[in-house]
TrEMBL record:
InterPro entries: VPS16 (IPR016534), Vps16_C (IPR006925), Vps16_C_sf (IPR038132), Vps16_N (IPR006926)
Subcellular location per the Swiss-Prot or TrEMBL entry: Late endosome membrane; Lysosome membrane
Protein name per the record: Vacuolar protein sorting-associated protein 16 homolog
Membrane topology: Peripheral membrane protein
Superkingdom, natural source: Eukaryota
Length: 839
């Protein structure tokens, strides 16, 4: 344990800081870091170097080289810079490299040097040029802040949703500020800048001077500023060698330290641990590194090489040409277990486990001591927690063995925390490997979440490792393996040295029917890469036609899209393709395409019936479909034309079409309609009133109601209306007029072809029982009972039924008998029934 704490350095009485090596860097840097623009992403992210920048006079004619490395120094990308002079580099939260040029254009590159997009910071920045720039992170995303040559600030809080804000002008500012930084307060980005001894805070509305509480006197200039990783704390380095530390709101001072060095530092960053009360700042000069906090003494390290500091959630990464190290505050659990002469329960449990392995009885003594104090559960938890904060696998195993040993003597210790820590450490050790190069700490891993870590592995194209982690952690397929395979497939389609057939086959063999994978998304990526044929092949594996068709239309493969839409049976999808084809093809080609697809043609006809009647007529003409063409002209005669001559002409055209279709019935019916229309117009001219567009029956009825009985009879003869139908029409019309005298004459004009029961029914419907009785006596024997019942003569109906000896008729009469009034009639029927049964 003594050796293990050899690299621990105390800062005051309550905290230790340690620095250990993450990687031995094997990158072949030709120049010092000081001669490059450097940007390193947080959470163990990649490092970008822009070699030979324009500020070097000796290499003004040589194009710079942009290189991207993993945190372990493994090359990821290298490209010759062909754009304008770059002022600053920075990484977004999505690990996209933002390159801020002197003209205010920001170029965005991927992790492998692939160009993503670009955007401008505005015309004012273009005119005045960029003096300095900062890439910062907020809860909304990654932002860019620009200092222009006019000493004005412009910023965007989220480069993903670019909204430029021009900050207020600083009064009397004639030169660039000595230092400045971005602050995030109340979800709004601010600029803090120093001009001589004065500090100014810029927000979207105003510029206000601010004063640091408790600042030592004699300050004439601020040389450096640093905001903590969480934007909660701020540190300023003054020309007197003092470092002021306080809250980012500038309302509270935490401490102040005199480092006795007045030279401006190269970098100054915060080094603090989540939920820790200790606050420390790391300051770097050319060959010296200093850790200062709320303590009279500082921790100092000698830098053998030019180094660069990367602030992290729980510490600081320090890399140079040869090494990559991590400096952080020793976590409480580790401190209690490993500090010299510690009697913490975790320390005793670790010793007990070691003695147990030696088969020493001291193991029992240590274990009894912990149990007597009732701290065995706490000891196990301490060992589990400390294991998470250790970087080296051997120490992790030692602590986890101690925890496992202690668990054996506990009855009800929940295993979840132990199992979860083992899983987390296995994942962390895998991504910390030199070839992967993501040196995450346990705290960073928990803050980042497993989903984001998987996304970052996918960005690095480490698909096998990402899949192994998903399977090991048993993540749901949609969130894990399926999503990663989809990303792999999207990358696979970009490999243009492999044939379309081979790529499509490889993707299908790997993906199969994996849930959550959309072949249409992969095909869209292939189409975006200019591989249309590959996209079509991939769409063959897409089971959802609704996903296939839109992409096929986008690729201008409309006929194939139509076939897929028809196969799906989704009429809405077919209509979508048809309308697209209609706008894309000329009329002749469009119709020819439809002729080869009967279902599509049928659906398009339905559409045309409601939307484009002329197109429908053209379709029928093209197909020589005379039957439908005739029907079309009949509908047209009623729909649009108001003049009788036009309507008759349309009907004549329909009749001709029906004759061509050899449908003589429809042709004759159409001709009859033409005759009826002409007759109706003549009746309107002669008699007035409304006849046009009435049916033949309604026309006859209207004539009868108007007293034109002879005309009605003539019309019936002309159109060969059967006698039965004419009698019904006339009977109904006369009863409606209540012309009972004319109705009686009509009934006696000749023998009724419909009988006389309809006369009874019509009269009763008009509530005229008197007239109904006249016709009841004339009803034939087979309907006599029904007629008598209609007029309410139950007794006579009973006599007729008994006379006919008809069981059904007697039952009908009985159903109309009421208790008091028709009792005798009911008895009479019952006696007749009894006599009939005896016989």
């Amino acid at each position: 344990m003594d050796c293990y704490t050899a690299n621990w350095n105390p800062l005051g009485d309550s905290a230790f800081y340690r620095k250990y090596e993450l990687y031995s860097m094997d990158w072949d840097l030709q120049e010092e870091l000081r001669d490059c623009l450097v940007a390193a992403a947080s959470y163990g992210g990649p490092i970008a170097l822009l070699r030979n920048p324009w500020k070097k006079e000796k290499a003004a004619s040589i194009r710079p080289v942009l290189e991207i490395y993993s945190a372990s120094g493994v090359p990821l990308a290298s490209l010759l810079w062909k754009s304008g002079p770059v002022v600053s580099l920075g990484w977004s939260a999505e690990e996209e490299l933002l390159c801020v040029q002197e003209d205010g254009v920001v170029l965005v590159y991927g992790l492998h040097g692939d160009f993503r997009r670009h955007f401008s910071m505005g015309n004012e920045v273009l005119q005045n040029r960029v003096l300095d720039a900062r890439i910062f992170h907020t809860e909304f995303g990654s932002g860019v802040a620009i200092l222009t040559g006019a000493h004005r600030f412009t910023l965007s809080a989220n480069v993903g949703d670019l909204k430029l804000r021009r900050m207020p002008e600083v009064p009397g500012l004639q030169s660039a500020p000595s230092c400045w930084t971005t602050l995030c307060q109340d979800r709004v980005a601010h600029i803090l800048l120093a001009v001589g001894p004065d500090l100014y805070l810029l927000d979207h509305a105003a510029c206000s001077a601010v004063t640091l509480p408790g600042l030592a006197p004699g300050v004439s200039s601020f040389l450096q500023m640093a905001v903590s990783f969480t934007y909660r704390h701020l540190a300023l380095f003054t020309d007197t060698g003092y470092i002021w530390m306080g809250t980012a709101s500038l309302k509270e001072k935490l401490c102040e330290f005199n480092c006795n060095i007045r030279a401006p530092p190269k970098q100054m960053v915060w080094c603090s641990r989540p939920r820790s009360k200790e606050r420390a700042v790391v300051v770097a000069w050319e060959r010296r590194l200093m850790v200062v906090g709320d303590a009279p003494e500082s921790i100092q390290f000698v830098l053998d090489e030019d180094s660069y500091l990367v602030p992290e959630l729980d510490g600081v990464r320090i890399f140079s040409r040869s090494t990559h190290e991590f400096l952080h505050e020793v976590p409480v659990a580790s401190e209690e277990i490993f500090k010299i002469a510690s009697m913490a329960p975790g320390a005793l449990l670790l010793e007990a486990q070691k003695e147990y392995e030696k088969e020493s009885q001291k193991a029992d003594e240590y274990l009894r001591e912990i149990q007597e104090l009732g701290q065995l559960t706490q000891a196990v938890q301490q060992c589990i927690e400390a294991a998470g904060h250790e970087h080296w696998p051997d120490m992790q195993k030692s602590l986890l063995r101690a925890a496992s040993f202690g668990k054996c003597f506990l009855d009800r210790f929940p295993p979840d925390s132990f199992v979860r820590m083992c899983q987390d450490l296995r994942v962390l050790n895998a991504v910390r490997d030199y070839h992967i190069g993501i040196p995450l700490t346990y705290s960073q891993y928990k803050q980042l979440t497993i989903q984001v870590l998987l996304d970052r592995l996918v960005l690095r194209r480490l698909y096998p490792l990402a899949i192994q982690i998903c399977e090991y952690l048993r993540l749901p397929e949609v969130q894990g393996v399926s999503r990663i395979l989809a990303h792999w497939a999207c990358y696979k389609v970009q490999q243009k040295d492999v044939s379309d057939e081979d790529v499509a086959r490889a993707i299908n063999q790997k993906l199969g029917d994996t849930p959550g994978v959309s072949y249409s998304d992969i095909a869209a990526r292939a189409y975006g890469c200019g591989r249309t044929e590959l996209a079509i092949k991939l769409l063959e594996y897409e089971p959802r036609s609704g996903e296939q068709v839109p992409l096929l239309l986008k690729m201008k493969r409309s006929k194939l899209a139509l076939s897929k839409a028809i196969e799906s049976g989704d009429t809405d999808l077919v209509f979508t393709v048809l309308l697209h084809l209609k706008n894309e093809l000329n009329r002749g080609d469009f119709f020819m395409t439809l002729r080869n697809q009967p279902m599509a043609l049928s659906l398009y006809r339905q559409f045309c019936k409601h939307q484009e009647l002329e197109t429908l007529k053209d379709l029928y003409n093209q197909d020589d479909n005379h039957q439908e063409l005739g029907s079309f002209h009949i509908r047209a005669s009623y729909a649009a034309e108001e003049r009788i001559e036009g309507r008759v002409a349309a009907l004549q055209t329909a009749a001709d079409a029906f004759y061509k279709a050899k449908n003589e019935f429809a042709a004759k019916a159409t001709e009859d309609q033409m005759r009826l229309l002409r007759l109706q117009r003549r009746l309107e001219d002669e008699l007035g009133g409304q006849f046009l567009d009435l049916s033949l029956h309604d026309t006859v009825t209207t004539l009868i109601l108007g007293g034109q009985n002879k005309r009605a009879e003539q019309l019936a003869r002309d159109f060969r209306i059967p006698d039965k139908r004419l009698w019904w029409l006339k009977l109904t019309a006369l009863a409606h007029l209540e012309d009972w005298e004319e109705l009686e004459k009509f009934s006696k004009s000749k023998k009724s072809p419909i009988g006389y029961l309809p006369f009874v029914e019509i009269c009763m419907k008009q509530h005229n029982k008197y007239e109904a009785k006249k016709y009841a006596s004339r009803v034939g024997p087979e309907q006599k009972v029904k007629a008598l019942l209609l007029v309410g003569d139950v007794a006579q109906a009973a006599d007729v039924a008994i006379e006919h000896r008809n069981e059904a008729e007697m039952s009908l009469v009985l159903s109309h008998c009421t208790g008091a009034t028709d009792g005798a009639t009911a008895d009479k029927i019952q006696r007749a029934r009894a006599q009939a049964q005896k016989k």
